[in-house]
Amino acid sequence: MKAQIFAFLWACILCGSFADFNSENSAKPCELAHKGENIEFPKDFSFGVATSAYQIEGAWNEDGKAPSMWDTYTHEHPERISDHSTGDDTVESYHRFDQDLAVLKELKVNFYRFSISWSRVLPNADTSVKNRKGIDYYNMVIDKLLQNNIKPMVTMFHYDMPESFNEFGGFTNSSVIDYFEAYASFLYETFGDRIKWWITFNDPYVFCGMGYAEGTFPPLVHSPGVGDYICMDNLLRSHARAYRSYKEKYYSYQRGKVGININPAFFYRKDGQTSDELVDRALQYQLGWLAGPIYNTGNYPSVIIQDIAENSKIEGLSESRLPVINSTWSDIIKGSGDFLAVNYYTSHYVEIATPPEGEVPSKEYDSKIKVSMDDKWRRAKSEWLYCVPQGLEDVLKWIRDKYNNVEVLITENGWSDDGQLDDPQRIDYLRAHLQAVLNAINDGCNVTHYTHWSAMDNFEWNKGYTEKFGLYSVNMTSENKERFPKKSAAFYTSVIDSRRILR
Ligand code: NOJ
Questions:
Q1: 15: β partners
Q2: What atom of ligand 1 comes closest to residue 159's alpha carbon?
Q3: Residue 266 and residue 59: Cα distance in Å, rounded?
Q4: Is 460 in the pocket of ligand 1 (CB under 6 A)?
Q5: Where residue 376 sits, what CATH number does that domain have?
Q6: Is 28 part of a structural domain of the chain?
Q7: What is the pLDDT of residues 95-121, one digit of tens each?
Q8: pLDDT tens, position by position, 271-305
Q9: 470 in a domain, yes or no?
Q10: Model confidence at 1, in pLDDT bands (50, 70, 90)?
Q11: How many angstroms is it from 413 CA to the middle of ligand 1?
């Protein structure tokens, strides 16, 4: 009873104080019409929710865990986080997995996507120390999920590089390829008897772009057009080696699947013309950069190779800023994915920038495009996030056509606000994007999973706790950090139960 009264008070506080949020915005459409024959998701289609270690675990220095680059960064640069917060404790999932499990059970999800903190299980980044307590924690999580018929889906790397490795170069040091392969093999050996879905990397473009080009995420390197390209290259090779290692040593008895997660947007021409060339160029720079080598040719897309080679020459360099993939590596990379995991949030308008914009060098400059948003689109609390569900349908069709209809898992999709329990905008967003997935399936796309970001409100990187993506709210000021369902949680469960998108 006490808990219910508390939940009620909490709901009132949240509803009242945020009632005006985005009211003008909510008048803008966030919907998508049904297309195609089936109104139900296929029988074997799975619904889930996602989180990541740094964003939910807390316990940043407990039980033998070493710091990750996000621990060091938030401690040293509180001024860079909107509310000067850290993930030191966050929603305390390291100590409160039972509360998370209750959320997952109440949602009735088929699977749970979470990430493993590299520095919690291998505090030295290499395999010299295997931290028993960290391993026990993930064993507990996996076992309890399976006991409750919830499939575990694991991300190996969700931005949180061990600080010890970051100190000697992180993803600009090519030894990361060996380190990552050893880490991945350790994960297969330790948890692979129960994990059937492995995602090597989360959002490489964000990690490399913000970390090594813009310098707005750790390790705060400002080296556009060079640092981010090296990061992407080492990450691609790390992924491919981790994939090969699974196939060679573990697949025969573990029978799981390994893929990578990429965060594409779709692009629409600003001039309204129908030629696909510009849209294609934008998608190659966004999605094809890594998906092309893995799911298609074993090499970077030719438009990217050409642009960067030409600009590098003009800049007086003897070699292209884009690393070369030789034939040995090409064989390792080509085909190194059983599925493509897609984090889709939003889309953009695109136009050719004449002259090219951005710093010289930079990806913006090399790509010769500029992107923008439409203020007719409904915007979330996050300034980059607009509701464009058609973009998800279109990106899925583009993948179908370019990559031989590879299996696609939507591994993230979500909406941010102030955290109110009454969240009709999240329901609109969810409904419209589920519709996009169903339309794409009806049009022959091989999509098998949908994952909502996130199970509960958590630490949103540089935005701290000021932008909330959860289906559940967490009372951050109470000792027990209770989780409370938002209205969107019940909506999502109704879809999972009925396998239909209810109006
Ligand atoms: C993608 C990232 O994977 C996740 O960590 C983040 O919280 C969401 N986008 C929302 O920004």
A1: none
A2: 5
A3: 38
A4: yes
A5: 3.20.20.80
A6: no
A7: 999 999 999 999 999 999 999 999 999
A8: 878 778 999 999 999 999 999 999 999 999 999 99
A9: no
A10: very low
A11: 9
Tell me, yes or no, whether 31 lies in a domain. Answer: no
For 61-82, the pLDDT digits (tens) are 999 999 999 999 999 999 999 9
**At residue 261, what is the residue type?**
N
Q: Determine the 3-state secondary structure of 375 from DSSP.
A: coil
Does a structural domain hold residue 73?
yes
Rounded to the nearest 10 degrees, the angle between the axes of helix 176-191 and helix 132-147 is 50
Q: 348-352 and 369-372 as β-strands: parallel, antiparallel, unpaired?
A: antiparallel
Question: Does the beta carbon of 307 lie inside 6 Å of ligand 1?
Answer: no
Residues whose CB falls within 8 Å of the CB of residue 317, separated by 6 or more in sequence, listed in order = none
The number of C-alpha atoms within 13 Å of 313 and in the hemisphere containing its C-beta is 6
Helix runs in 27-90, H state only:
53-56, 69-76
Output the pLDDT for position 22.
Answer: 57
Residues paired with 451 in a beta bridge: 48
Per-residue b or e along 224-254, where b marks 16 or more CB atoms closer than 10 Å to that residue's CB: bbbbbbbbbbbbbbbbbbbbbbbeeebbeeb
Of all protein residues, the one whose alpha carbon is nearest to atom 11 of ligand 1 is 460
Q: Is the CB of 202 under 6 A from ligand 1?
A: yes
- Confidence (pLDDT) at 23: 67
H/E stretch holding 251 reads: helix 251-254
CA 50 – ligand 1 centroid, Å: 10
Q: Whose CA is nearest to atom 6 of ligand 1?
A: 460
**CA angle, residues 220, 224, 225, in degrees to nearest 5:** 145
Tally of domains within the chain: 1
pLDDT of residue 71: 98
Q: Band of the pLDDT at 8, cuts 50, 70, 90?
A: very low
Domain that holds residue 203: 9-13+48-338+350-457+480-498
- Show Cβ contacts of residue 83 under 8 Å, excluding neighbours closer than 6 positions: 464, 465, 466
pLDDT of the residue at 382 = 98
Q: What is the pLDDT of residues 349-393, one digit of tens each?
A: 999 999 999 999 999 999 999 999 999 999 999 999 999 999 999
